[in-house]
Amino acid sequence: MDVGDGSTILFWKDMWHNDILADSHPRLYSFAKNEDVAVRDLLTAPALGQNFHLPLSIQARGELQDLQTSMATLELADTRDAWKCVWGSEGFESSKFYLHCFRDGVADKAFEWIWKSKCTNKWKVFAWLLLTDRLNTRNLLKRKGMKLRDDVYAYLLCSNPPEETVEHMFFECNFSKSCGEELGIAWPAHGNRLQLLHAVKDVWSRPMFMETFIVAAWSIWKECNNKHFRGIIPTRNGCARDSKMTLE
User: Fold this and answer.
1) What is the mean pLDDT of residues 211-226?
2) Do residues 135 and 168 lie in contact, with contact meaning Cβ atoms separated by under 8 Å?
3) pLDDT band at residue 248, thresholds of 50, 70 and 90?
């Protein structure tokens, strides 16, 4: 941002002097009376005690002298302050803000496969929740501190069920494995959900791998919910048939 009259820029918290001063001068900032003071109000204050709790520590006084030196040539103008986004444009766009915040993040290729698939947005979001372990499985509810009836957190579609996790529900359970095999998906015995996806995709010889996986996972999710809320007994053939009809 470019300083004009300094009335709309926060001295400590906005990036107007190469850095955010609260971060670059933390000791002096700790003595500030008003953390949200505007640039104009701080620079035009008649006395040091108006902006800071006195006396300052030796370290804070050193940072004050550094600021005074670096701002010796700064002059406020009669024009309005000019705000610019850190990515270079004047207008704010949520997509650019998101990209800026996560500019150093590297996502697994599997997430790119989700958003490039031909599935509906609802299924894409479902797949994203699945791969990030944010589906409301019983394991996640337990981690959130939610108490289920009789403290039962086991998976519903197994005869001797372990706790219901994303890995077991979609990759390890015999029911999900058999449904996947009907569609040509054979999960390896070991690996996390992302490693398993990569392993199967590497040997997949047909098109629409990600669409097939997402539709199959959605069908398994529906079968589990149907048993829990409606008492409908799931079948492998029914799950596979539902997936195939959807893919067609």
Assistant:
1) 91
2) no
3) low
